[in-house]
Amino acid sequence: VADPHLRERGMIAEHYDARIGRTVLGPGIVPRLTATPGRIRNAGPTQPGVDNDEVYRGVLGMTAEDIAELHAAGVI
Hints:
The chain is of the alpha+beta class. It is 29% helix and 16% strand.
């Protein structure tokens, strides 16, 4: 992460994470295109699985019972 070449090329980017209240390092936008360079909107989740319930229920349409069955079976 300290490699100046990676930073200069934008492969490592600093961005503010409002959830933890500080600037963090993360991957930059690769490749960087002239017409559509991309941007980092947020740092993403700070803990693995923090959005699982939203995905299971909201995206996949699972019920609490569906989720409980998968937990009991050791799937999730």
